[in-house]
Specification:
By secondary structure, the chain is of the alpha/beta class. Helices cover about 40% and strands about 10% of the residues. It has one domain: 3-Layer(aba) Sandwich (Rossmann fold), CATH 3.40.50. The chain has a 9-stranded mixed sheet with strand order 1-2-3-5-4-6-7-8-9, with helices on both faces. Mean pLDDT is about 85; it is low at about 1-45. It comes from Truncatella angustata.
Length: about 400
Amino acid sequence: MEIKAALLVFTASISEPRHAVALPIPGKPNRISSHRSLATMAEGPTMIFGQKMLFAKAALKTITVILVSIVTGPFRGQKGASTLWRHVLYRALRVHRDPSTTVGQIPLASTVDQYEAYMKRKSMDPDVVEFSNGAKVCWFGSWADETVVLWLHGGAYVSAATPGHMTLVGSLIEKAASNKAKLSCCFLQYDLAPGAAYPTQLLQAVTALQYLTQEAQIPLSRIVLVGDSAGGNLALGLMSHLSHPHTSLPIINSQDNFKGLLLISPWVSFDQSAACMVENADKDYLGKARLKLASDKFMAGGEVDYYNTPLGAGADWWRGIRAQDVCILAGEDELFRDDIQSFVARLSVHNGSKTATLIARGEAHDAPVLDANLGIFSGQQKKAMDQWVLAHAV
């Protein structure tokens, strides 16, 4: 039954996509614009015949892997994923996302598209704010709520947020409301590589934070910064900029600290020499080839520094990190595990008393988001995430 459910979800994910296109948004000169009505859905770029053939070939390859994995999965021993259905799904996802196929290169819905689709399902009006540098933020809940989550999404800097991201945020807002707490979320859409390379995304994150602190008049002490995967990388870049201003980015004029910093499977290094990159190769749905391609697109030949590679910075760089509390979640079975543990050790030298960490047994990369896309909400990291965020929503 579990395998059947996973296959149904995966089959939907490889169907020929429809691309949602937002209507133009009128804006104030050189600043921001906002709209509060649903965008029109339109048919996206049509795949040419050659692309369709390659897509079909990739889909056939993926289905073959699924069938073989179902047969061989029971004999995977300790090398495979924690359960049979996850073993099958993760192997399929690795093929589905492999850079040698075109599946991961076909235009899909943007972050704003995913947000608007979620709001439509919930019969709520969307609230999107656009900035002159191309960044956009999507609001969940009221701007006036006591605690505001600024969420920076994952996707290796080459993919938009997923429906699972929207579901996670929506569930947090609903749980906070049921606890009589005031919580809202400002969800950033940043430009993706290869169309936009580093430090574009960091500039857009700075813009979103300036908007919250200056335009919306929300102090850092009311903001919880959340980043998953590449979003965790971006969140740490933003934290570095607060403490050590990047010379090419606007300075954030605030003496406050974030109310909290939550990192879910943060991408802290582009290096792939950690032992778990081999140990967990068959346990995670991430693939080294795709990560290498994505990091190359993101960096575009640029210089590696502490703002894009947090693990490269020493313990003193992180002294006095600008957050009242820090929580870092990761999966024991993910490719990033060793790098994340090394980063936690470095961060904890001067911030150990305010840093909480969970390495969840049997869970893979960015488990709360992946599971939310599958309709699963019982994972260890998901429970820890809810508990930590809701504790700050008072």
